[in-house]
Design a protein that fits this description.
Blueprint: H1 2-5, E1 6-7, E2 10-11, H2 13-33, H3 47-58, H4 76-87, H5 91-109, H6 117-128, H7 147-163, H8 169-189, H9 197-213, H10 218-224, H11 228-247, H12 258-269, H13 283-292, H14 298-303, H15 306-312, E3 313-314, E4 319-320, H16 322-335, H17 342-361, H18 387-402, H19 418-428, H20 447-488, H21 493-523, H22 535-551
Length: about 550
């Protein structure tokens, strides 16, 4: 038995695979015992939008009949959801299988730096049982449940290729495939999917510099690192072609399309009477537009519709907040008939942009910075006044991540009619939490579910203690390695790994900062783990690598 398990002070390959397979099976079983969060009436532009799009895909209708919501979001998740439905795989089990694959990619990518099988197995397991991957937000029928998996596969591909930069191109192909295919999916999953590119850009420059410094044939290898983006482009173009076939627009979404970004950006460029950090297009700016643009004036009455206003208006701020106004605007224009098809909406926004530019050029309207150049973005203008709040929220988000806050596995109570809930549950092959403990909103758990949820909660507590300690150990390993390199004036494999770790923790902080800016300028809902879910695997990866290097022998 001992011979089967150990060889040369390491685990045997067969035993490592056995443990990994059993761990995955158990993790999938845990996911199967979880409830899915089903509440169609509460998430018309989120969960319900993706579910309806997936149902349309299964029916051969792509994303469904065109409206102001149909192609408003990058909808890779709808494709994934339809894929799981066709296979008959329960949603949470399918999502966890993808997460297990991402964890395997990460462990495999680091083989040149973490040479012992037991250490790589440890990395795989600690990623696999990441509490955030089974947190309440991950039980929703929404894209953020798979976005961390896609991002981790991308990072694994880039790291795997970077650590093997001396190998021949054939050995790099699996890692090229990882970050090539995954980037296409990452981009199609969320509108901010391009956030992963700084990691690749830094890796590309570092590898190219190393190839030149070591006098290796760098041109062919450096060029080959860009080839996977051909695969990404093919995936994205295939998606855009579907939109063109069904809606006449070769775009990923009409929210991130040029005409909408330009029109919305033009509105956020205009001078405001009283700046509110949470309101990008306040009522005084809208009044100026109503008074000077005849075809925009009807929007005022449409925005006052009780059903529309009740869903988007913020009483605390006395206006539509930034994260709500663009949806309210699209809904208002839809009510006015401008979303009859994808062309009519496109033409409206182009006309609106031209009219605002004309008013600014004519001196009738002023911009916030006095320039005649209008913004071209759906994000609020970045101001110095945001800095303190963004910094505070960045660190609040990072604390939330390393402490695994909001990572309880209990799904939210199902909301909707019995028909609505059953329709969704049947499509995703997973039950919603329809039975609750009397006089509470807490879902009732069977004895088996109670045990599995207790286990996942215990794991969360362990991670909340262990990861901060490992994070500190890794930081000390980095400092020690850097000082040793400076003293000896050398650059070795540990030096390269140190750079990788800087990149990983840098991307984690970048994501926290991005989400912090959106929170303080648009959402105002407080720190929410769903938007930080891509940071958890990066923190785990960073913490484990440095700790493993500290205690390796």
């Amino acid at each position: 038995m001992k011979k089967y398990i150990f060889e040369n002070k390491d685990l045997t390959k067969s035993f490592t695979i056995l443990v990994g397979v059993l761990a995955v099976i158990f993790r999938l079983c845990l996911s199967y015992t979880q409830f899915a969060t089903i509440y169609p009436p509460l998430a018309p532009i989120d969960d319900d939008l993706m579910t309806r799009a997936a149902m349309s895909i299964v029916n051969g209708e792509w994303l469904g009949e065109y409206s102001y919501l149909t192609i408003s979001k990058h909808a890779f998740f709808a494709v994934w959801l339809a894929f799981l439905h066709v296979l008959g795989v329960p949603l949470l089990v399918g999502n966890m299988a993808l997460w297990a694959f991402a964890s395997l990619c990460a462990a495999s990518a680091l083989a040149p730096a973490i040479k012992k099988r037991y250490a790589r197995l440890g990395l795989f397991l600690i990623l696999l049982y990441n509490p955030a991957a089974s947190a309440c937000y991950a039980t929703r029928i929404y894209r953020d449940a798979v976005f961390p998996s896609l991002c981790l596969i991308f990072f694994a591909g880039v790291i795997g290729a970077g650590l093997r930069y001396k190998e021949n191109i054939k050995k790099l192909l699996p890692y090229y495939a990882m970050y090539g295919v995954s980037f296409g999916c990452v981009y199609l999953c969320r509108e901010d999917g391009v956030w992963v590119l700084p990691f690749f850009a830094a890796a590309f420059l570092i590898v190219e510099a190393l190839l030149i410094a070591e006098k290796q044939p760098f041109i062919k290898k450096a060029a080959s690192m860009l080839l996977p983006f051909a695969a990404s482009a093919a995936i994205i173009c295939l998606y855009c072609r579907q939109n063109y076939t069904h809606y006449g627009r070769f775009i990923v979404s009409d929210f991130t399309s040029k005409e909408f970004k330009f029109a919305y950006g033009a509105m956020t460029s205009l001078k405001q009477d009283d700046w509110d950090p949470m309101v990008a297009v306040p009522s005084d700016v809208r009044e100026d537009l109503y008074a000077n643009i005849d075809f925009f004036a009807p929007v005022k009455q449409a925005l006052e519709d009780p059903l529309l206003k009740g869903g988007y208006y913020n009483e605390k701020h006395g206006d539509f907040t930034s994260g709500a106004f663009y949806w309210a605007l699209r809904r208002a224009l839809s009510d006015l008939g401008y979303y009859e098809n994808a062309q009519t909406s496109k033409e409206y926004y182009e006309k609106l942009t031209l009219e605002i530019q004309s008013l600014v050029d004519g001196g009738i309207l002023e911009t916030q910075n006095g320039s005649n150049r209008l913004r071209k973005s759906v994000t609020p203008p970045i101001k110095a006044e945001y800095v303190p709040a963004v910094l505070a929220e960045t660190f609040a988000g990072f604390r939330c991540v390393i402490g695994f806050s909001q990572c309880d596995p209990m799904a939210e109570r199902a909301v909707g009619t019995e028909e609505e809930i059953n329709r969704v549950a049947d499509f995703i092959n997973q039950q919603g939490a329809t039975a609750c403990i009397p006089y509470t909103d807490t879902p009732y758990l069977s004895p088996v579910r109670a045990v599995t949820h207790a286990f996942m909660r215990a794991v969360r507590v362990i991670y909340s203690v262990l990861i901060p300690i490992m994070l500190a150990i890794t930081a000390m390993w980095q400092i020690k390695t850097l000082l040793a390199d400076i003293s000896a004036k050398t650059f070795n494999s540990d030096s390269l790994l140190n750079i990788v770790l800087l990149g990983i923790i840098g991307m984690a902080l970048l994501r926290c900062r991005m989400i912090a800016f959106v929170e303080v300028s648009s959402f105002g809902i407080g720190t929410y783990v769903m938007y930080l879910s891509t940071v958890h695997p990066l923190v785990i990866l960073y913490s484990f690598i440095g700790t493993a290097k500290t205690f390796e022998y």
